[in-house]
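The protein record filed below.
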Amino acid sequence: MSVVERLRARFGEAPRSAVVLGSGLSFLRETAEDRQAEGYGALGLPKTAVAGHAGELVVGTLGTERVALLAGRIHTYEGRPMNEVVAAVRALAAWGVQRFVLTNAAGSANPDFIPGDIMLVDDHLNFQGRSPLVGPPPEQGAFFPDMSNAYDVELRGRAVEHAMGLGIPLRRGVYAAMLGPAYETPAEIRMLRRLGADAVGMSTVPEVLALARLGTPVVAFSLISNLGAGLSPTPLHHAEVQDAAKAAGGKLGALITELINGD
């Protein structure tokens, strides 16, 4: 049985929207009502192995909208093949999900962005050195996808409107994706800032690339969980990232709920 067949057998028809929950944000799945959950392994998806990533798909209702929540993701720094990194979003798109909200916890490369800020991703810089698009021409989607609207302009505009309506300050900026798992050096943070990055993390971009090939609309948010190296007087720890994400995750959850219910 294929992954899509397992998804249909377990959850029925696909919701219109899916949300990928980043580090420390998996607790947002508890906000969904009438939820059903299944581990990635039981669905034929690669299992997660990083703290803060539960590794399960939850289908439930946020507001009045049925939604799929991917609680956890695979990362390139685990040494996993790229097809595993993007397997979940590809499977949900094949199931019938029409749009994706991607989230991550990120460090600040912009000294004006502080822990607890939410950044709407307008564009990205990819320093991971790997891409899920490398390989023979695909059966579906463009071999050379256009990336000028990889972060859907309509969804971004609606995100700004809903944030204003909720009174949630919303930063906007460029996300730099690094391979990891080491945090960046102060020199790397300075380099990234000079290149135009506002936030830095180790995820999200592979999923954006995979979905851009399929022409699937994407909007992404970075929850600023820590200051980048050289901007903070203290060493960085993964527990700090998780704690900061949980502390500010309620605002992001409210914004996502409004966004997927607002049309």
User: Anything to note?
Assistant: Residues 3-261 form a domain with the Rossmann fold fold (CATH 3.40.50.1580).
